[in-house]
């Protein structure tokens, strides 16, 4: 390892392909000195370095991360470069989805492409633009990721030969199955966090009986108004029905107006279409901006006690809000009588090989080491289902608690609307949920969305 750190190490990780760091700079730019932080699995770094030497090889990585996120992924790639002697060039783009299609069609694909959604990766695999990762990698994911089979399913696509294979390795995950609340407000009112859907509904009714308002819900998002309601429905689909039903709904093998989908929409309505249950009444739900909707948690007395939203929502909390004191969260619970375990809905990025090389295969192996996860965990904005990664490496308690939810998941599924055709998932589904929230019949809304899907064929 020491030889590689001192000779031939280069990392060109400036967005857009800037100049490479010098040999000395590469070692200096390791954000944690090897061996310096006991939370991190340095033995896995040393073992990987001993087994891999890509000195003189240049590897390109393209992805959606820019700004601060780009610097975070660069900090991980720096360790791969230091361990192997490879030169690594990362290019981030806000228009990655368009850029990767153009570059592959032009024959100038990066070695590694990092996809923010599986749908585009599936399309590119079908066209022969991605390389299968191999059954050994699929077996590794099954054995080493929580809900491993789910991650294999999400990263497996049909290739140009008609066969299914693992093309995508998921790395960096977001969790959406969260309910945020104020511990102080719960304590003052004598409420406990619910562990089942029955308990969540009972708590909702108890808050009303006590004279309070249980929920803040806001669907407003400009041209994207309605999307927060789709997250509710998706989470409820996973709690009401088996994962394969959810999968069939995503690709329309199960019609949108199927009774099981209507059931999930109506379960969302149980929470959102009751004036007593939501701050401002039902009329406020579609017009309240999702960024403003959690504000009611922090008023005194509280305008609401609970807010369902993904792991990113703290960005919109009042300045100075402190996790564990001012705000906390719990897992959006499952229906105990459905016996579906602990499903989690969210999003994530997947690494795929677009231009095969030894170094590209090596990076995929590097992502199977604890250190490749722990470097980012120890900073910010990163969750992983990797069972061997040390949870103590997380940079804060909130991430650690979200990581526990991810590790306890029995099923993980990607946000359904992100997987559906854009006209549906980012169109008819959004507007349909606004119509339903404001009084339309669930069957009529689901039927209209299915009609739109049929018209696309």
Task: Describe how the helices and strands are arranged.
Elements: H1 2-6, E1 10-12, H2 23-28, H3 42-51, E2 58-63, H4 67-84, E3 87-92, H5 96-105, E4 112-115, H6 118-126, H7 135-144, H8 148-155, E5 156-158, E6 164-166, E7 169-175, E8 178-181, H9 183-189, H10 197-209, H11 227-240, H12 243-250, H13 259-272, E9 307-308, E10 328-331, E11 343-353, H14 358-366, H15 370-377, H16 397-407, E12 411-414, H17 416-419, H18 422-437, H19 442-456
Parallel strand pairs: 1-3, 2-3, 2-4, 11-12
Antiparallel strand pairs: 4-11, 5-6, 7-11, 8-9, 8-10
Outline the structure in words.
With about 450 residues, the chain is an alpha/beta fold. It contains 19 helices and twelve strands. Strands 1, 2, 3, 4, 7, 11 and 12 form a seven-stranded mixed beta sheet that branches. It has a three-stranded antiparallel beta sheet with strand order 9-8-10. Strand 5 and strand 6 (about 165) form a beta hairpin. Helix 4 packs antiparallel against helix 15 (about 370-375), helix 7 (about 135-145) packs antiparallel against helix 8 (about 150-155) and helix 11 (about 225-240) packs across helix 13. Mean pLDDT is about 95; it is low at about 1-30.
